[in-house]
# Entry
Amino acid sequence: MPSFEEYTNEIKSLWDSRWLTNSGEKHRILEDSLKKYFNVPLVQLYANGHLALETALSSMDLTGEVITTPYTFSSTTQAILRSGLQPVFCDIDSETYCIDPDKIEGLITDKTCAILPVHVYGNICDHSAIQKIADKYGLKIIYDAAHAFGETIDGNSVAGLGDMSMFSFHATKVFHTVEGGCIVYSNPSYTERLTALKQFGMIGKEDAEYIGSNCKMSEFHAAMGICNLRHIAENIALRKKCVERYRKRLGLIKGIKLCPTQKNVESNYAYFPVLFDDEIFGGRDNVFNILNSNNIIARKYFYPQTSDFTAVRAAVKDIKDTPISKYVSEHVLCLPLYSELTIEEIDGICDIIESIGNS
Ligand SMILES: *Cc1c(COP(=O)(O)O)cnc(C)c1O
# Structure
């Protein structure tokens, strides 16, 4: 969080303007700052990442099937279903945990309209392979980039990939506005809909041109974003130190698998996922429970894969087997990671993990 003073200073002007929501000054400043930060022409802010994703899908007039992965947060799959579309689950790559592009083409039918890949843990999808497939079959690409804030690939912002990218600004993310999110896109013909759909489908003050929702970002949320954006580089640098320590301590331990670093990606160090071998660690849940009893809260993130949710099982007609996704979801823990985490705390966590592996 920014300091209390920095935030209260930022919101002071709202007591003069009495402008609390509906594209006020803070909203405009944050939108412009993000365009500069991402180095992209077009950004739209929303009340949260999930509704941004739903809005992206409904702005494109899609019908039919969307190829996506079940190794993601609930939101990705639910946004597809709530938009009246059918998710078609594709398995993931065993190193990046992102969609495996080699498995996409076999899932394409005459109903396929789009691909919705996820940059899992800030690992960037094989975007050129995905783009080739989309071009060949005339499919849209919407990236769930909730984990990828501020990252670049080969020197370019990841925000520019595909037709649209959704970023989440939830309190738990690397950059946050308490609750919030955005869509980044490059085709200006989407602007009217992306704007109208967050304000009841209205462009002007009387008619509703579209069936929309209400998912505007308020001035108080935008002000939090303005403050946090000032400290983002410092925040990411601190996270990097944590990740380097974790890697140094855990990288060579038998029975532990870490994600390889992507050489051409400037990472945001959003998460630190670890896969635990069953034989050596007695199961992922064993590690989770022992950490928990030491007051260390790791997350089974993502578990279960979304295709195993009760509601998704009921709503999706043909659920494909995704063995790699299932395996990763049953062996992964994301270890604590935030900018104020100290090296001593990380060492304490790693000592416990080491002792479980040796016992
Ligand atoms: C956080 C997250 C979302 C949803 O974003 P909210 O801002 O919480 O609505 C969607 N997808 C992924 C992968 C996420 O991690």
Notes: The pocket of pyridoxal-5'-phosphate is lined by residues 48-50, 72-73, 75-76, 118, 144, 146-147, 168, 170, 181 (CB under 6 Å).
